[in-house]
Amino acid sequence: MxxxxxxxxxxxxxxxxxxxxxxxxxxxxxxxxxxxxxxxQQENAPRLTILDWMMPGMDGSEICRQLRQSRKGAYVYVLLxxxxxxxxxxxxxxxxxxxxxxxxxFDAQELKVRLRAGKRIVDLEEALxxxxxxxxxxxxxxxxxxxxxxxxxLARAEREGISTGAVLMDLDHFKQVNDTYGHLTGDxxxxxxxxxxxxxxxxxxxxxRYGGEEFLVVLPGCEALDAQGLAERLRRCxxxxxxxxxxxxxxxTISLGVVITGKGERMGVAEVLQRADxxxxxxxxxxxxxxVVVTGSDLVVVTHGQD
Length: 307
Ligand SMILES: [Mg+2]
Hints:
Elements: E1 2-6, H1 10-22, E2 26-30, H2 33-41, E3 48-52, H3 60-70, E4 77-82, H4 87-95, E5 100-103, H5 108-133, H6 143-160, E6 164-171, H7 174-181, H8 183-200, E7 206-211, E8 214-220, H9 224-239, E9 243-245, E10 248-250, E11 254-260, H10 269-285, E12 291-295, E13 300-303
Parallel strand pairs: 1-2, 1-3, 3-4, 4-5, 11-12
Antiparallel strand pairs: 6-8, 6-11, 7-8, 9-10, 12-13
Bound molecules: magnesium ion (MG).
């Protein structure tokens, strides 16, 4: 686990670095409060941090206060390191938002077990966050999370003058799978479909379970031709092989509606979803197991036939 140390005292900082590395932490170390604050603002900031209370720039308790006010990103567990160990100081530090404190000079064993307690909180918070944003059956993002990501990518595309793709997919005749083989088999098909699709997608693409047998993929910075090719690969990865289940092999196919925004074009989530839905509906109408693409304000551009 990565950990941020901020301490202006070089001796204390080096001692911390040495101990934490020995205990298996990946250490990021800075010597003042401003640098610590900057490090905590990074996208992939450490979730565990040891802050010295008295530091130039921002002091440890001020960083805590700002952290708790911003409520941005994942929870950061803060252990304040301080030579202020009076009861009032401790209350003030905890009220500022620290999770724990340790008096200077600290005892290595005590630090070790306190950090272990902090790591448990961070791990628990992470597990809850995953649970709240992921679909339990398929492991894909859940409806709320994938919509949030679509919204974020649309805003980014508009700001940066690039395109965004969205693919709405539906397993064809899925009700028949449930009716014929039972819901457990239906679940197995959904799980396998999500796994196959994840293997086809690029690293930056995100897959979400939109509803029952519907999935939504967001393709950040994706242009029309790429999106079309990707959608076609998604279609094939489902159609190519039946899914092996405890009830035997189950063949399935998907229909896909693809929307690509024009470069820097302003398009809201509702509009993208409505267009994707129309494209998907057209794919269904034309016989299923196919891709229908809509670009920007244009109407349907491409349809792929069945294998
Ligand atoms: Mg200090």
